[in-house]
């Protein structure tokens, strides 16, 4: 089984769409302390990210750890009437509950602090906290084992259930297990109507701690329905998985040539104190590599709510060791921020609290070798840190997938790092995508072991601190540099790999700081030669050659601009082209299309098979945006508008074939959009329009098919129709069970 080597947030953001924040540079310490108190007082060993149960397998996988479903017996989940049954005791005990059995009445009783469930063998009715509910399938005794319907049990205990058809695997999560919500209101909001402990600060998300999951879920639904919030999300739990093995020596420091760059800075007297805050599992300060190379001023354990940041796991010590190893003889110090416990576990809020505290403590660089599914709270905390002048370096992730689906790896303001191996190829596990800025060594990286000595680990977790160290060195070179300028300077010191210029696997390339090392050139002595004078009898004919002048080597880049003001496409395979031009103070321009990082905002409208080429997908409007670390002296153009039109003829109205939809997780069904013409005729026009979902993690429409992914409710709507004369339908509710 492939490990992921980094912390993973569970589940996606709800009700998040294109809002802007205005943050103060630092968060109030009273607010942060109250948040820390909420976290530490409610922490539970029964928290988990996900449980995986596969049909035919006797094992239950919980956050990468294997348990037997029915200890001592070869019992596995079975399918009865299209529903999964299994012995439930291990599942219930792992979430902190108990299981009882009454042989006389053939009744199984499941209970935890909030819920009691009673099920009778052979009966399709059950009692949940005294309330009678109906199940799709009855509990049964199979091969002398009591088998219960997993969906009914899961939903009774507040578990979400999803089905992965490809592997016949049931995936269980528990979104509200922390009993905590994070919400950002559009204006003032009365939180007093909820029975919750509240932490508020202007410009920051409001945190609500409830006494039960039921209360947290009810408040979440109420806030979501109010329409008064930019976003509302539970404080999801996540875990840390990684691979580690002993090794003889490391190679990453040599590959990025950080020692040479650091020696140059020391020689030139450029060695100010720079604080790099490592948000991780803590730090073993007694390890010899950290002698005089760490600071405890501002260090904090956001999980336990105290200043004990000792590393009982090892991941944080390893990451911090790489920062130190790449900044020898420098006054660059590690500030440990323990946002994951000794099991490598935390929540969105432990990470956000750590970011805010690192900013308050004066960190110039933050390293985040962690990440997971989309979280508005985490993403905005990163943006807040960057806007306050802190360079944030983030691991791309280890799922070999696109960073657009992960936080904070999708954040364009951060420096996102993918992993390369010893042959300068992309590591097989590394994520990729439009947000990737650089690559760095991430395979078999040797660094400090928590209990002394060294250990080898692999992952983008290991690549990220190489770049965090490089960022600190660049700031030491010029302490006035802001995050965008740090990014620009690092772009000047890379080995371009993959496609020429920027690409989604390597970003601008693998960091190579030797390209920034300057030396004093030797003095060249030109000997004085006494010329021999030859008398000229016949005056020579002087020929003046025509010379094409070379570009001025001292020209100054002024900015970038699009070659066109807008791209207009029509459905039916239409393609359009554009260029990005770099222009200079001498009036010259250079085509920078292939060497710049850009992406399409909505690929459901138009896609970009190659940079500079656009292809129509469905009607609507979208934009091509340029990801370029701008500075005040360089002009960066705004997004390039792309309009895709469809010949909808005399259509006056669009409507869904069905007003609402009900679908199971892992199921799909055809989705039809009807066009009503002036004549009254109705036709299927599904392929001519774009259909969106309010949460693609629950359900979405692709290529005329509705897919259900996990239990929940969303709305499906028609998007991108530029015709004011066409009446559009109301969003259609979709319930996924």
In short:
Helices cover 16% and strands 33% of the residues. The protein contains eleven helices and 55 strands.
Task: Give your account of this protein's structure.
This protein is α+β, with helices and mostly antiparallel strands and 737 residues long. 16% of the residues lie in helices and 33% in strands. It contains eleven helices and 55 strands. It has a seven-stranded parallel beta sheet, with helices on both faces. The protein has a five-stranded antiparallel beta sheet with strand order 4-3-2-15-14. Helix 1 packs antiparallel against helix 8 (348-360) and helix 6 (258-267) runs parallel beside helix 10 (460-477). It starts with 6 loop residues before the first strand and ends with a strand. 46% of the residues are buried.
Q: Strand tally, please? A: 55
Give a short account of the largest sheet.
7 strands, parallel
Helix content: 10-25%
User: Radius of gyration, Cα only, in angstroms?
Assistant: 30 Å
Termini Cα gap: 29 Å
The overall pLDDT, averaged over residues, is 83
Per the principal axes of the C-alpha atoms, what is the gross shape? globular
Low-confidence stretches: 1-25, 520-549
Q: Which structural traits does this protein have?
A:
single chain, 737 residues, alpha+beta, seven-stranded parallel beta sheet, five-stranded antiparallel beta sheet, 11 helices, 55 strands, globular, disordered N terminus
